[in-house]
Amino acid sequence: MEYIFTFLASTFLLFIAQHSKKRISIIFNSCGILCLILLAGLRKQTVGTDVLYYGKPVFEAAYNVNTIKDFINLASLYSIEYGYLFLNLIIQKLGLNLQALLIIISIVTITFTYKTVSLIPYKHKWELMLIFDLIFFNQSLNNLRQFMAMSIILYTFAKFLFTEHKYTVFYVIMAILLHQSAVISIVFFFMLYIYKSDFVSKLRFMIYAAIIAIQVLFYYLLSFISSIGFWGQKYAGHLFESLASGVDFVGYKCILEFFPLIIILILTIKTKKIKFVETDIAFKMLFVFLLISICFNVVYRGEFIERILWYIDYIAFLIGIPYFMNKLQKNIKSFYFIKIYTFISFSGYWFINYIIQKSCETYPYSFFWM
């Protein structure tokens, strides 16, 4: 009940903000985002598997860190990135507790996600935050470090794609310091850089093909990276476990989460006015991301594969869907049909995945004082 009430309240406030004057809209936008931050930050420590798995142990162990050697040893012991551990230390030095850490993590994750949404050239921003609520919010309560890193990469990707690439390197390094998986974003930004560069056509085509091949075979590439020690052994274990699991067709996840993406792609391709224009960088990039997201989520399972796919999914769902929705706006019937179908489907996914199956142990929800 807490989730539904908060999602509805946040969506309503963001909707009101969209139809208000600038000063008033700032207030409503802030309140809409604050609803999500408070729901995430004020939760009990039993909400979200990783809070008790490493969140609380690392925070308590950080009290014993007095030297740089202690810092490095603790990071190695828990396979925790230096950036995340440093955040724990800052909160402790300020005399705050674990609840403050959860609030700060939720502020980083949700604020960067909303900043991304504000950059996307799509009128109905509240719809994009509702997609985040239904697909990613509960997952973010579990994967503390990775969702901070993902939200920063998402924001950086949107800036690179739609506005500028200033501070890209800084944001990528910050994300990697929070979670090692953010290394995969280097491939994304290299791909964007190539798309924006002026190479000879044949060379450009060869580079496109190579980059797509790298993404399709990215887990083999990462297995090599882990074997030479660049990637943590913990993630290497997840990788080989994922490869050993083989093909696994997903069922409800495929139908509820990815059929809307498939329909969006089909409708977009069928729209005669839309062409694969060479200069339309965003179209080509997001088309590839949606396609990869659909293919790999339907076929491959396993913790490591899913962790890497979350980056692609984050971009595909929060940047790709609105971008292609804009392409369909002139086709009124298709536009409203896919919007209604998408939100019904995503709502079903959220209910089955997080409420019935209790994925990530985020249900039932409790506030920390209960």
Describe it.
- Helices cover 77% and strands 0% of the residues.
- The protein is an all-alpha fold.
- The longest helix is centred in the C-terminal third of the chain and has 26 residues, at 303-328.
- The chain is globular, with a radius of gyration of 21 Å.
- Residues 236-250 and 272-279 have low confidence and may be disordered.
Short description:
This protein is mostly helical and 370 residues long. It has helices at residues 2-18, 22-41, 49-61, 68-78, 82-93, 98-119, 125-142, 144-163, 168-178, 185-196, 201-216, 218-227, 233-245, 252-270, 281-299, 303-328, 332-356. Helix 1 packs antiparallel against helix 7 and helix 15 (281-299) packs across helix 16 (303-328).
How are the SSEs placed, and which strands pair?
Elements: H1 2-18, H2 22-41, H3 49-61, H4 68-78, H5 82-93, H6 98-119, H7 125-142, H8 144-163, H9 168-178, H10 185-196, H11 201-216, H12 218-227, H13 233-245, H14 252-270, H15 281-299, H16 303-328, H17 332-356
Helix pairs in contact: 1-2, 1-7, 2-6, 5-9, 6-7, 6-8, 7-8, 7-16, 7-17, 8-9, 8-10, 8-16, 10-11, 12-13, 14-15, 14-16, 14-17, 15-16
Tell the overall outline: globular
Which segments are poorly predicted (pLDDT under 50) over 5 or more consecutive residues? 236-250, 272-279
Question: How many individual β-strands?
Answer: 0
**Average pLDDT level:** 76
Terminal CA distance: 15 Å
Helix content: over 70%
Estimated structural class? mainly alpha
How would you spell out the order of helices and strands?
HHHHHHHHHHHHHHHHH
* Proportion in β-strands: under 5%
Gyration radius over CA:
21 Å
For the largest beta-sheet, the strand count, sense and barrel status come to: none
Number of helices: 17
